[in-house]
Amino acid sequence: MSEDARLKRVIAGYTEADLGGAVAHQTMAAKPQVQPLQEILLHLFNHQTHRRGHAHACCSIVGAEPPSLDLILFRRGVPAPSLAL
């Protein structure tokens, strides 16, 4: 199962109350935090976008023409590029 499919399945199980509920956790530096679940999920998806940008930049640096990863193209029906090596 793809990670995206797994995330969709997990998020579909949340209620509005779940999404607005506070989650206690700690940062990688062990600093305690309390945030609504919806903010944590927004960070997760924004971070994925950030990392895709890094991957795209790395391809450009090594001289490879990176494939388009623009969501709008996929929504318009353009097939996703094959990333097979």
- Percent in strands: 5-15%
Order of helices and strands: HHEEHH
Spatial strand arrangement across the major sheet: 1-2
Number of helices: 4
According to DSSP, the number of beta strands is 2
- Could you give the distance between the termini? 20 Å
Q: What is the 3D shape?
A: extended
Largest sheet: 2 strands, antiparallel
C-alpha Rg (nearest Å): 17 Å
Integer tally of domains: 1
Structural class: mainly alpha
Task: Give a quick rundown of the structure.
With 85 residues, this protein is mainly alpha-helical. The chain has helices spanning 3-12, 16-20, 37-61, 71-75; strands spanning 22-26, 32-36.
Task: Please describe what this structure looks like.
- The protein has 85 residues and is mainly alpha-helical.
- It has one domain.
- The protein contains four helices and two strands.
- Strand 1 and strand 2 form a beta hairpin.
- The two termini are 20 Å apart.
List keywords for this structure.
extended; 85 residues; 4 helices; mainly alpha
Provide the fold topology.
Blueprint: H1 3-12, H2 16-20, E1 22-26, E2 32-36, H3 37-61, H4 71-75
Antiparallel strand pairs: 1-2
